[in-house]
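hi! just following up on the protien thing from before. the input was this:
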Amino acid sequence: MTDFFYIYLQEFLFFGLVNRIYILLFTLLSLMIGTQFASAQIVGAEGEYVDTTFNDNIDRTAEDFVIASLVIADPGTVLYSVLGHACIRLQSPTFDMDYCFSYESENVSRKVLAFLAGKLMMGLFAVPTEKYCAQYEKEGRGVYEYTLNLPIEVKRELWRVLDNHLTKGICLPYDYLHRGCAITAKKFVEEALGETKIIYDRSLYNNPRSAKNICKKQMENALWTRFFCYSIASGKDAEGALYGEKQLIAPMDLAQAWQQATVNGKPLLSKEPNVLVEGKPQAANGWFTPMVLALFLLILSIANLFWNRPYFDWLMLMVQTLVGCGLIYLYCFSDLCCTDWNWLIIIFNPLPAILWRWRKYWALPYAGVLILWSIAMAIITIWGHIIVSWSHIVLGIVFALIVFKQSNFLQRKHK
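and the predicted 3d structure came back as:
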């Protein structure tokens, strides 16, 4: 402040008389406008005026001056909502303000190609709680609120932190594993706490899980979505073990961990949630699941060893090529998170189509590789580490039989 007045005085003395008069008039005008803003009023939700002037009539140290909550929404039916959603709700009854600060991505359904390329962006939004709940009520998804038991100074700091992130807009690439809704909600609270740490229950550190293991639990009612996630998610981030609080990528896992966590020796979260929106029962999985499809293709591939219908082979070759091109694109060119080396490329790749003319030389060795791949993945899955699903393992056997059918060994048998 001293430097400002020093520079101001230098400029005032440097200019001539007329310019000095202009500077004085500008200063007086600025002070008048500042005074008006200092006593400004805002319109409340019901239309009444709420005085925001910092005066002695408002107790900003009262515990209910800011009410903070963790809000959890039930899982949806589409890919980007299948794990549910988490956000921070902040209320200030004094000023009749009530917002949900929700970290979200651009609309995936309208930008599927951008999502697969890793170009989808994320950012923080402030949505009035009534409007936020209305969209989930329309989808039939429940919304539950858990009160954050934080000191008032931390809750006020949390509001400041969220406001600062809000001004950044949609500026970060989509990355659910490192910047998902649950992860960012946790980071916002940690930033507001400063040097104070959240103490989690020890059980969180005794059972490391991979992101795919977490998805297996959270997607029990969305088997096709889980199959798709297992198909494209790969590499260390998706399959490596996550320890401690790094496992809290699913909203409900975050709520359960915070219910057992403490801050300064006090429980962080209320034990029982407040129901904001009653959810409708989720539809159970139908009979047509990925495993049913895989077993059906297995039966056809075995039968085709005797029927020798080329149409089935060509259809499966086309599927193998198209899926393989997609997986290679994700691995080589996409910036989407969790798309490192994918073991499914051994099954799904365009090489069989490219080298089809010379299949009698490579068909039998490649069939053996696919059988060994299926056995190895089955052992790893039984061990408890998920790389692919059982449906993928069955598909490995399907393509092994299709390739084996093209080998010289089987061709001689047919002759």
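Residues 359-383 form the longest helix (25 residues).
The CA atoms of residues 10 and 148 lie 52 Å apart.
cheers
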